[in-house]
Structure formats: structure tokens, C-alpha cells
Amino acid sequence: MKPEYNPTEIEQNIQREWIENNTFKATPDDREKFYCLSMFPYPSGKLHMGHVRNYTIGDVISRYKRMNNFNVFQPMGWDAFGLPAENAAIANKVSPKDWTNQNIEHMKQQLISLGLGYDWSKELRTCEPEYYKWEQLIFKKFYDKGLVYKKKSMVNWDPVDETVLANEQVIDGKGWRSGAQVEIKEIDQWFIKITDYADELLTSLDEVDWPENVKTMQRNWIGKSHGAEIKYEIEDSDECLTAFSTRPDTIFGVSFLAISPNHAISLDLADKNELIKDFLDKCKEVKAAEADMAKAEKLGIDTGLFVLHPITKKKIPVWIGNFVLLDYGTGVVMGVPGHDERDFEFATKYNLEINQVIISDEQDELPVIQTGKLINSAKYNGKSSEDASIEIIEDLEKLNLGERLVQFRLRDWGVSRQRYWGCPIPVVYENGEPRILDEKDLPVKLPDLKENSPPIPLSQNQDFYNLSNELKRETDTFDTFMDSSWYYARFTSADNNDDMFDKNSKYWLPVDLYIGGIEHAILHLLYSRFFHKALRDMDLVEGNEPFKKLLTQGMVLKDGAKMSKSKGNTVDPQSYIEKYGADTVRLYMMFTAPPEQSLEWSESSVEGASRFMKKIWSLVNERKFEQIDEPLSLSEEEKGLRRKAHSTLKKVTSDFETRYSFNTAIAAIMELVNFIPESFKQDNASASNKFCLNEAIVIILKTLNPISPHISQHLWKGFYFDFLEEDIESSWPILREDLLEVSEFNLIVQVNGKVRGKVMVDKNLEQKDLESIALSIENVASTISNTPIKKTIYIKEKIINFVI
RNA sequence: GGGGAUGUGGUGGAACUGGUAGACACGCUUGGCUUAGAACCAAGUGCCGAAAGGCGUGGGGGUUCGACUCCCUCCAUCCCUACCA
Q: Does ipTM exceed 0.90?
């Protein structure tokens, strides 16, 4: 009796060999390099399905590239700082450090048991001083370059817990732990001038091979807009309010100005006016997240102030609007209710004037958002929006009341966090004045917590911050996006404690393929791109972009929703690895959906993947490759199998190479396995039968190897290696184009675009011959009957369509 | 509110450049094997219809000889929205 397929045993043996032989350790050599990076995980405790999917995709591509003679570097590490460690520490009385390190140990074993081919010699953890000392040094270099500054900025403040809350810790405006009404508070924080690179972040998107939707999201996020800053003189004052607008052509339609509740004037007025003070207090109740602010009801209050229209000198009321952001533009918005949705809503609510100054062909009901021709605009009447914008800006420039301006939506990056479990910001305060520490004073180590102490913010840790009466340490830590913005580069030199980036980095960078969740399409990728450019300008790395190609995978869903603990719909990969083996889990993940799409978890489909593994097992196990010369003549059945085998190879290769469409590649391999005639598998099959079978098996095992490497390699050893000592990963099979040719094709016959018949015909026939064959099909003839044919359309080797 | 996606049988999905809709798999049905079950093997399986045939890719409209694919419009779901990672 044949031995049964026992994935656990096979997989553990092969994984041991990989470790013993250092199979995946990568060093620079003469071959073309391929740096394949999957987004490193936050060590939350155990792998979830999203990780399994992400890392399997990376591993499949890495193994495919390795078989095609690329020098592949595939490292793995840990995004180890972050909020969950602090929450766990409070809940379970474990230190964030111990909790994190235990999680890492467990998850690393899980990654190994999935058969992922990582070069563990370059493993890194962002929570270790060996990593973050370089991050602190980069921050210093940024500072020296003038890319760092401090300014006041808004945070969610829990007045009971006296702590800053993340957006996700604010639930319905209340602190998640205390339940207290959260306030928006302004505190002093460190910022990095990512906006200095706004233009380049936009233009160099053209250089990368990224999905168009991700590029679009980044472009929209950066949000370059052309417009003008327009000054409005405040009545009975020497001061002005300056508003940015992308539509200077609508300037005659301005009926109010709205200023931010955080604007200096608002704060000033609040001191004198109870109503305004109450209004500002009300504004503070809205969560700091953009989505919440945008969805909040538009509210305003009249300041009683007036400004003068720069051209007509008409008096215009100034309002405070809760929808005006201080951080964007000037914190002042010119309200043109006739031509802006939001202004229209606001003006209707507060009975402000609504004037039409643009007419459009597309729409006549206000508000008219489109550009068009100007009306009610004095000497600009009749001009197009485009021409009028230019002229109005020019005229305002002459009056010193405005200027052309390019504005970005992108804001500078606030990197301060008031937490314990993060990288300390390497700054000391001498008599209150900040000073960045020199390289020799780095790293500033995160202090350990006292036994059984909950993670207190550094500001409450006297030993840490109180260096002397005059000298205090900065107690903010970095945003964890800082940690993940440059790890891709550090991987190349992670085992080198003397250099941030050693000569290996020149060889491996940039990352050739970066794989990760679509949820990172904006922030993480934008920050990393910024880091790379800034590091480039300090001569630390080369090239303009960190990630040449990007593959964004979709979510893993269950019952149509993202798997999450709170919904209670998580599926633990571990039990599936144990029950079915890593090969089955990997196959399932790759087969069930294409990488970019979301994947709906289905229990029973895993069974199907397992069944296919067993099918391969029973096809190949205990079979031996036999040396047989290529037969000179073959039967139709044999020719068919060879054609199928090579067309499968062609399809799998192109699916791997150009589309990362693993589900269709696997379907093709399944088709090939199903296609093999039963008789070819018999012991007494003819030599030419066996030749064709051998060829098919070689193609099946090799094309399957990137996806399910354990079973492929195990079977390969018994089947082929014993015979030729050739490793399965040493080469990708060679395609025989000559075997793919066919002399016939299936002609589809349509009448008025509806299929009425199909017929196998010789490839060499002329169109007129095909027409007569097509017309002789009974169903076609009866449909046409005596109706005259108006037109005949023939698409080569596909379709003939009679139009009647 | 803004930005980006997605929508095809009972289910996951395929159709790559406007040219056979439903590959491959799951599930289900019937049969075989079995004391029984599991596993495995064989056949069938979009919907309506006895059949001929008709209908069918979220809804509605359009372009075309021909539309899952292109255009307009509406609906639903998911992701991101700068302190979750």
C-alpha cells in the first residue's frame, strides 16, 4: 500500500533542511537581484489571515524569481512599537516589552511553519535600541537640514485619564476607558516638513510601477491646487483676513467669510463674548478625525465683524464656521454660496446672501459648481471662468490685495506621541530651550518599567526626564509610522551595528516588489517615499523612490466583513496549518481570489485545496522518472497531453510574470492534472506514453513549487532528484512553443450577435469557405431562412457574425 | 463630507485587447464502492420551460454587427480620511 500524504512530517523535515542549509540567506553576487518585501507585521500575538495571505504572495513570487535565476532577498522583521502593547500591559500586567517579545517568538515560529523563505539573518525589531538609535540619528539629520520644527496642534484629550487619545480610542466622542467627554486640546508637538517634498512626491509617482488607484489616492491626498490668496481688509482696522480660493472667478459672489474656530481672531473674540466662547467650546466636542469633522453638522456664528470686498468694497460679514480647518490654507474661507455646495448649505441655514455669478451650460439650478461664463461681475462679465480667474488675480496683484498661489492639501507630519511604548525623541531642554542630541549621545534608550507598573507616559517618569534642574528630557515618543518609514532600507544592513546602511544597501535597494494591504495605500507609503527622498538628499541612499513596484492585496473577509476581534469573526490560521498543512493553506489562499481583491474565507474550499494536494500526491508519489528519448511520432492523445502541458506552462508563466494572477495559474495546473489520461499512469503504459507523462509531471511539480513548496520538493526528490540530482528550484521549465500549434479552431457562428452554432474548422480556410460552412449549419440556416444578409463580420479564428 | 475600490450561478471566482458568459474549485443531486460512514471514482448541475426556445453579469438608460468589458445615471458593500497598524 502506498504511504499516505502526511503534510506535517514532510513540511517539518523540509523546513529543517532550509534552516540547516541557510537556503534563503542572500548575499550580493553577479546575478540580477530581486528584493522582495512584504510589509512587516505588528506583533499582535498571532498571525491572522491577512498576514498569511500577504506573506504567501511574497513567498510565491520570491520562489518563482529564484527558479528564474534571480538573486532573491526576502527579509522579515517586526513593527514592534505601538499602542496595543500598552493596552495589553494594562490588561494583563505584562510589560509591553515582554508581551511584544513573546508575541514575536510565537509569530516567528508560525511564519516558519508556513514555509516562508525568509533570510532571518537580517531580522529586525523596531523596539530595540540597535534599530531605533539610527532612527534617532535620522531625526537629528532631518533637524540639521531644517526639516523639523515644533508647533501647537490639536489632540483628543481625555480630561479624566489626563491622557491623549488616538482617534480609535474615542468612541462617540467619549474616552474608551474613562467614558468622559473628550476635548480637543492644543499642545506643542514635533513636526516634520514633508510638505517641502510635496511637489516631488507628486511628480515622481510617474517613475514607479504602482497600481493606478494607489497613485491616484496619493495624488489626491497631496492635493495640489492652483488658486489665489485674496486679502480682505477688516473694517475699521489695519488688519486683513487672507483667504485661499481655487475659484477667484467667483469673487463677485462672495457673501461671507468663514474663519476657523481656532483662528486667532476667534480666540480673541471668545475672551470678550460669551456666545462666541460657548460656540468655540461646542466645536471642541467634535473628534479630531477628518471623517468626523466632515460629517458633523455645519455650524456657524456671526462675529459681528465685517471685511471689505477687495474689488467692490462692499461690506461682507465674517462668521466662524466649525468646518474651517486652521491647518489647511489660511484658516479663512471665502463663502460663495452660489457656486459651492457647502457654502450654499451654510448660507441657506443662516440666511446669508446667495448670488449667482457664473452660468453654466450643464446646470442652471444653484449652486452651480462647474466653471462657465461670468455674470454680475462688472467688467469681467461674459468672460470664461478660466480667463477671468487669470485677469482677476492679475488685477488683485496690482492692488496688492491678492496673489497667485499653489496650495497643497498635504499637511506637515506630526510625529509626537505622548506614550510610553515608542522610540524616544532624542531631544533635551536646557532651561526650556530644545536641543537635539548629537550622534555620540544616541541612542536615548526607552527606560524599563518598574516591576508590575502599568506603562506610564515618559512625562511621568522622573528618572527619565528630570536630568537636572536646568536639563530635562523630551518625553514624547515617535509616531510608529516613523519606525516603518525606513525599515525597508535598514533590512539590507540589519546585522551591522556600525553603519546605518552598509555597502549591501547599494546592491539591494530599491525594493523591487513591495507587497502589503491596500489600507496602507496613503499614509505608510507616502511617509516611506518622503523618507527615501530625504535620505537621498543626505547621500544615505540612492534613487528617488524606495519601492519600484507595488502589489496591494485586498482584505481577508468573513461573512462580508473584515475579520476583527470585536466582531468575533476571526479565523485562526494556526489550526488550519496543523490540520491540513502549510501547502494546503498556501494553495487555498492563492486559489480563492486574485491578490488585489478581497478574499472571503470559506471553510469548505480549504477541503478542496487539500483534495488537490492529495491528488498530486497519488499521481507522483513512488513514481520514478525514466530516461526516455523524445519519441519521433506521437498519437493524437499524446500530442494532446504535450500541448496541454506546455500551454499550461505558458499560462502559468504569464500569470506569474505579468499579472500575479495565482488563482488562474492554479486552475490551469488543475486542468492539466485532470487532463492526464488514466492509461498513461499505468505501469504497462508505452514508452512514449510515459515520456509524455514524465514531461507533464515535471511541469506540474515545478509550476506548483512556488505555491506549495513542501509537497513539490518532497515529491521531486523521489521522482526526479534521485535520478539526476537536479534541484527543483534550480530552473523553471523551458517552453516548447512548437508543441502548441494546432491546425484547427472552433468557429463560433452568430446571427445578429447571438450564437447559433459552433464548428471545428481548418485554420487555413479562406473566409468565403468559412462562410459557406457556417451557413450550412442547420440552426444557422433556419434562423436566417430567406432573410437577406446585410453584412458579414469575421473575426480571425474566432467568430463569424451574419447581420440580417 | 472627501478620496479609492468592488458588485457575475446556491458559494469562491474565470472570461487578459469589445468577440462562445460561468474556466477551475466548493456545494448539491444521482449512481458505484462499503455492514454503515468517511474517503475515493463516474455522471449531472446558471434560471424558466416537457421541448423548441427564451432569459441572464447590482438597477435603469445609451454606443455597437456584437457589451461582464466602453459611456451616462442610480443603488449597495468595503477600505482610507493624517494619533489603529
A: yes
